[in-house]
Amino acid sequence: MVVRNWVLAMYRTQLHRFLNSGISRLLRPRLGLLKQHEPKPIVIPQNYHATEPPLSPPLISITTPTLNQGQFLALTMKSVLDQNYPRLEYVVQDGASTDGTRELLEVCAHESLTWESAPDRGQAHAINLGFKGTTGEIMAYLNSDDLLLPGCLNYVASYFERNPGVDVIYGHRVLIDEQAREIGRWILPPHSNEVVTWTDYVPQETLFWRRRIWDRIGGAVDEAFNYAMDWDLILRFVDAGAIFVRVPRFLGAFRVHEDQKTIAAKIQWGDPEVALLRERLHGRTVTSDEAFWKVRGYILRHLKLHLLYRLGIVRF
Questions:
Q1: Closest Cα partner for 242 from 139, 171, 168, 138?
Q2: How many helices and strands, by DSSP H and E, does the chain display?
Q3: pLDDT tens digits, residue range 183-242?
Q4: CA-CA 20 to 30 A from 172: which of 91, 201, 250, 256?
Q5: What pLDDT digit, counting tens, does each position of 69-91 carry?
Q6: How many beta carbons lie within 10 A of that of residue 157, not counting itself?
Q7: pTM tops 0.70
Q8: How far apart are CA 52 and CA 84, in angstroms?
Q9: Which of 247, 48, 51 minimizes the C-alpha distance to 163?
């Protein structure tokens, strides 16, 4: 065990030295990096805006849990409601914010939007409250600082209609800053159930699933998690036999900012919850070095795809 850990640590040290060299700048993995370059305007392919829904569009249920994120919530809601998807039920579940969120919601009127402002027991509980009473065949939750990209819902609905055997889909990720300027992109290889047992690179804001798989796992996010509830949800989908597909499209944008829960809560909740999930999966303690080694093939596939994207050889 000691020798194995030493070898893994040495491998990672040497790899990091290479990745930090000027020669390897173009080949540096972007997965896990939340700021990759200086802010610039997001460029959205024109065909994204022209995406059409299927002839018989399924009802899509989306919930946004929020607490004191009023500065970002309006743009998040706009990114959902401006999709102009013909059959949408959108629920904003506010945990009794004190920053003007309720006042914002009170002046928002849209036939697809409902909202509630009441105390909850945390993000996972808010997600479950938001989904309570929804009936959509397709489901997703979008955090109150993230965005859906144009045409996302039409694309998702059409994909599910064309692929009735698929239960869960997700796409590539755009990273944005506080002013919604692009600061990076995650280009993901095809989905791997094996990789997801070691680490979670699935962009949560791009994740959509069928209600049938949601019902199969009990119809709820596990409220024991404060940080890793999305990874736990994905793993429960895998355990239930879900068919996953990483679709060839950017579906959402993940916002990086100073008050972000993903950053602020990582040490308090994130690291222990990630360690707990890995131990649950593998029956023993799994170090970050070992997890990194286990997914090295996936990282190499990401590097190849990222390079092809940067060179304009493949487009999404």
A1: 168
A2: 13, 9
A3: 999 999 999 999 999 999 999 999 999 999 999 999 999 999 999 999 999 999 999 999
A4: 91
A5: 999 999 999 999 999 999 999 99
A6: 26
A7: yes
A8: 10
A9: 247
